[in-house]
Amino acid sequence: MSNAEGLDAVVIANGEAPFLDSTFWYLTEQDSGSFEGAIAVVGRDGSLDVIVSPLEEESARLGKGEIHVYETRAERDSLIREALGGLERVGFNLGSAPYSAVECVRSAAGLSEVADASRAIARAVSVKDAKEIEMTRKACRISSAVAAEIPGMLSEGVTEREVAARMDNRMRDLGGSGNAFDTIAAFGAHASQPHYAPGDGRLGKGDVALFDFGSKYGRYCSDMTRTVFFGKPPEILERAYAVVLEAQEAGLAEYRAGAEARAAAIAARDVVDSSEFGGRFIHSFGHGIGMEVHQAISVSSRSPQILEAGNIVSAEPGVYLPGIGGIRIEDTVLITEDGFERLTDFDRSLTVV
């Protein structure tokens, strides 16, 4: 991010939890610490200054950057002035930084204005290096292993909340450092809600069961969805499953470096819209994945973005039928020069438990 958009410096300013920017950990390569109120400054020459309180000093010294420790607010402001004094164009990650954190730095440094560096930051974090890919690969292995165990977790009368908790525990048991997001477990008609929160719904014969979940490993996320059936499903959902699987394959066929992101979304949507389920694919085909489960790559029909080798994105078509249920199949995918690599690998064929 050095010299991003002609800036003299880029500042990553954390607020109080939960207003913490994953870019801070991306730059410092930290694997622990909360770093509330911490500030990272990337200079035009690529230098990195990290300003922290004594609470985080030990953790900070295990990572990258020149570490500066403050005891008081006056000392913090002095360190900010030393890092930014005299600079004219200073950028912030305005898509993530809380106003209070930006204003703190702006006031301490005497900046008359701030610039938005979020586009340059998004571009930098969206192309993964070998280490980042390996962290993501490990997160995907964990979630894939849990996916393989889902059928054994299902029994008549079990609740959504119970299965979600078991999945969360297994991701930790297998080495995950936490959830990439809150696990979705949706039974029956609840599966028509893409962002459903698991409740006390109980699994019954013939129900569809949709699971959207992901693990973290080394702060990197996986994201996958599998939909299974507990007993013979309604024929309409069997047909919907076949359409969603075909749509995912059509979208994946467009994934490669240099391709327009929208091509994958259009290909998948064309499959759904030409079927009896036209209009029931109600979200984008995919999104970027990294330290955040949603990063700034949009795989939608209107996306202007071009895919690059090293991008990690989801592939997640769905069909949603209110009052009946829903089908979604999702994988985490690495974009390569000549195509893609699927990082989540549990069976996608129709599964009846």
Indicate the topology.
Blueprint lengths: L8 E5 L8 H7 L10 E5 L4 E5 L4 H4 L5 E4 L3 H12 L5 E3 L6 H11 L5 E2 L1 H9 L3 H24 L6 H14 L4 E2 L4 E4 L19 E7 L1 E3 L2 E2 L2 E7 L4 H18 L8 H13 L12 E3 L6 E5 L12 E4 L2 E4 L3 E4 L2 E6 L2 E4 L11
Helix pairs in contact: 3-4, 6-7, 8-9
The end-to-end span amounts to 49 Å
Oligomer: single chain
Total strands: the figure is 19
Shape: elongated
**Adjacency order of strands in the biggest sheet:** 4-3-2-1-5-6
Q: What is the averaged pLDDT score?
A: 96
Radius of gyration over all CA atoms, rounded: 22 Å
Count of separate DSSP helical elements: 9
Approximately how much beta-strand content do the residues carry?
15-25%
Highest CATH level, the class of the largest domain: Alpha Beta
Largest sheet report: 6 strands, mixed
- The helix/strand series, from N terminus to C terminus, equals EHEEHEHEHEHHHEEEEEEHHEEEEEEE
Helix content: 25-40%
The CATH architecture classification of the largest domain is Alpha-Beta Complex
User: In the CATH hierarchy, what is the superfamily of the largest domain?
Assistant: Creatinase/methionine aminopeptidase superfamily
Taken together, the total number of domains comes to 2
Q: Enter the CATH topology name of the largest domain.
A: Creatine Amidinohydrolase
Helix/strand structural class:
alpha+beta
Low-confidence stretches: none
